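Quick question: what would this complex look like in 3D?
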Amino acid sequence: MEALPGTASALMLPEFCTFRSSLHEQREMKIGLAQINTTVGDLPGNRDMVLKAYRRLVDQGAELVVFPELAVCGYPPRDLLFKRRFVPDQLESLRQIAKQTGAAPAVMGFVEANPSNSGRSFHNAAAFCHDGEIRHVARKCLLPTYDVFDEDRYFEPADLPAVVEWNGRKVGITVCEDIWGNIDVSRERYPRSPIEYLKEQKLDLHLNLSASPWHCGGKGEQRERLVTQASLACGCPTLYVNAVGGNDELIFDGRSMVSNAKGEIVSGLAAYAPEEVIVELDQTPTFAPSFRQSPMQNIEDALVLGLRDYVHKSGFKKALIGLSGGIDSAVTAAIAAKALGAENVTGISLPSQISSEHSKSDAEALAKNLGLVYHSLPIADIVSAAEKTLSPLTQDYGRDVTEENIQARARGLLLMALSNKFGALLLTTGNKSELAVGYCTLYGDMCGGLAVISDLPKVQVFELARHLNRDREVIPLNTIEKPPSAELRPDQKDEDSLPPYEILDAILQAYVEEGQSSQDIIAQGYDPAVVKDMIRKVDLNEYKRKQAAPGLKLTPLAFGVGRRIPIVQKYVS
Amino acid sequence: MEALPGTASALMLPEFCTFRSSLHEQREMKIGLAQINTTVGDLPGNRDMVLKAYRRLVDQGAELVVFPELAVCGYPPRDLLFKRRFVPDQLESLRQIAKQTGAAPAVMGFVEANPSNSGRSFHNAAAFCHDGEIRHVARKCLLPTYDVFDEDRYFEPADLPAVVEWNGRKVGITVCEDIWGNIDVSRERYPRSPIEYLKEQKLDLHLNLSASPWHCGGKGEQRERLVTQASLACGCPTLYVNAVGGNDELIFDGRSMVSNAKGEIVSGLAAYAPEEVIVELDQTPTFAPSFRQSPMQNIEDALVLGLRDYVHKSGFKKALIGLSGGIDSAVTAAIAAKALGAENVTGISLPSQISSEHSKSDAEALAKNLGLVYHSLPIADIVSAAEKTLSPLTQDYGRDVTEENIQARARGLLLMALSNKFGALLLTTGNKSELAVGYCTLYGDMCGGLAVISDLPKVQVFELARHLNRDREVIPLNTIEKPPSAELRPDQKDEDSLPPYEILDAILQAYVEEGQSSQDIIAQGYDPAVVKDMIRKVDLNEYKRKQAAPGLKLTPLAFGVGRRIPIVQKYVS
């Protein structure tokens, strides 16, 4: 790995830390915040996106333009970093950007090759570019290695954040986690705090470049607290510029913001959409309407963005959904129609001989309400061919879950055939509750390239359905009101196999998300038999989740890259 | 998290580091090496296994018994550590073990709750137990966070390894990676070396507790070098005790060993099998025959162990395999028969109208050679039912890969039905080359709970087939000699879509395992069009691998937990 030629790390040159104090009165700066939606690994695309935003903002008078963490390569690049030419190619891309900068600096995240021969090969860094060159490099000090984050796998941390002198001002630069140092009050995650160091630096301005994915449950408020605390600690304004867009499971919500030196949020950018804004710190506070909005609107917007970016960044235009008449596929279809346009979404009803009349009519009504392309393909022939083919081996045995799974897999086979034939991405529709307890068929209803609502517990699927119906009946009321059923055997109801979803979701929240044991959960008053049965089902179905489609992360702990449970294990808790 | 009551960390009590020197002549010790096969999370099972091995070895005269890293909970516990009761339950299990120890210490790996309120919640540690108590705790200094390892996600490193006084002897205790400090000559992975510290401690004995998974390509030799170097550096014997057994993707090969103070390996334990051995350092060197053996025998043994442990530790007894008459399913079946007993393996031939006669006869001959239960289920009816069901939507379009995938998915559906009906784990049979370029059908031939040879490139599948035939023709010669074909359209051959496997595997080795770019590979003389087409296929098929069954890791870089490439990304290298 080559070090970055022609640049000097702020950390390596101690004179950068001995600026004159800038207590003299200064004219208010105009600073551009470029909340952009990059694609992981798309070096030319990201470069052009950065340059266009830079030019637009400079044309509008920005004297400094700030971009998100790792804007040059997209976040998270993960093991692309280990491809031998990735970091050099990305540095070339950064140099091309730097060449186009003028007097107004552009500050953006990139991956620096670690110039030292010790420790990890890279730094997660920010480049301070102006007048055609990379003038300073600031390195991230705190590397998240928990939940979905693996930064210790790639990056060497810096001891201290960088302070850059610019036009007589002292600008402190931190990267994302650097301001998250000790958010968890029960223990200090990191032994040091970059903000504690910056406190002593008499900064005029503090920039934080972030790629902070969204999840429900107060992350927005938490960020506002961290940004204002950083401002109060540093005694200067903080500009927090966050990435926006979906990258695999992660949804970055933007919501860049500015705190003044008094710790007041004076600007809040759009949630779930790119935005370029010029802030003047003495102006009247301005907030995008989506900056603070209802929890259910956040979930809707997050899903729409995550789905759209997954489909479009994968090079697809069209999506395909199996419509059962039930609520999960209805909500998935409604999100898909918003994300891709109804004309790009095809709904397929796949009725069996067991399917109720309302399943077919509800699916059709949904498709009509949304304006989807709609077809119906009955699965009876394929199911009976499969059962007949198997009969020499199975005829002496009774019907069991095997025959239920055959139906689900016949549907999967047909949907995948249509996906192959027409180049439409199949969306899978399972919710978090059923994925948790394995109430789903591997290679059946689990087929698909993206699991849109797999991090949404069933109770919240109902809430989201009602929210989607806020203006008009998009999702048929009957779909919302009828008892959930997989319809894989006559008169089947979900509640034959599972407790009521209010109870199931509470148990799953405690077990999966909070790591509570069965005895902890039972102590809260739940039926011991139900608790033990459900957590046993969670444990037994790890193998299904291993083969599940990637799902959009909505909660603090989603199934997927942020939850790493062994498949074969025998711990009973 | 509670600290471990009743124990004291060697690191916290400086008096442990001020032993009298023990240069006086000492009687040779008898030391027990317990190379055991634990199951992740099986606290009672692992406890009993540890105690039985301890008693057996003490009964044979062992004065000290050494176990592998994290023997109490199994390795790797991964996010089980975040279950709130896991570490406390595991500490209780350790206390139960300690209670049963007598004058002969037992040294074993466990997870310690970090007693400090700063940093990660746990230490990867070793307990030195005797006379009924946990007397000392030694903590791991170097935490692997690369490839399949995520230790920085869980553990706080120790600054220094522990030195324990025992019977007038100074015993240094390191854990696995602590002796791997700077194996990579091109850069220092860690800023410090526990062995450098131990050099100064005038040790009488050095113990290294490991859970080091095997992979081909010289890892055995590398370990011998590290163990002998540690002995030479410390000026004393090193006892290296490694775990054995399969845990999900990882295969721990055992091969515990002892180096004397002169840096000579004087004892080598069995590979791929548990073993308990008492070593006396002045004895004649003794080696298990499998300690050093041929590369292909290592692959065979690793696969047999990995498959057996995956199936048995999952609670299955029987396995099921679709037999195509081709080499991948033949090799998988031969490994399964060795691992589980032929009577527990069912082979199913699933011929289509396209299948050649030799496909059926080769599959049948294989089943007969191995002694498998064998059935044939033709897929024609299910395929024609599927095509007929789809025809209203597809009749205006030509046949394409859709119809090929329908055949593969019909097979998957039937095999999964048999797996469900008879409680046999379906094994999937794809090799690394086809998984790399996506020459496989998601939800079709990719169906299965375990991908047995998914880390074996096709050229090595042929080598392994010949190796399996070394005593008699187990795999029909025709299976080995005929040109590989997916038989999804008439007269199809793999080489219609792919370059010859010798070339493909070389390109994949360079691209996937070594991270070379297309231009690097083309510069070695490969056809530019072929290189670009193949690496494009690798990149495009990340989505299939996301949903692939777990596969047994055989190479330094397997698809799976050790390779984390974004699914949606646009980097072209």
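Answer marked as accepted. Confidence is low (pLDDT under 50) at residues 1-25 of chain B.
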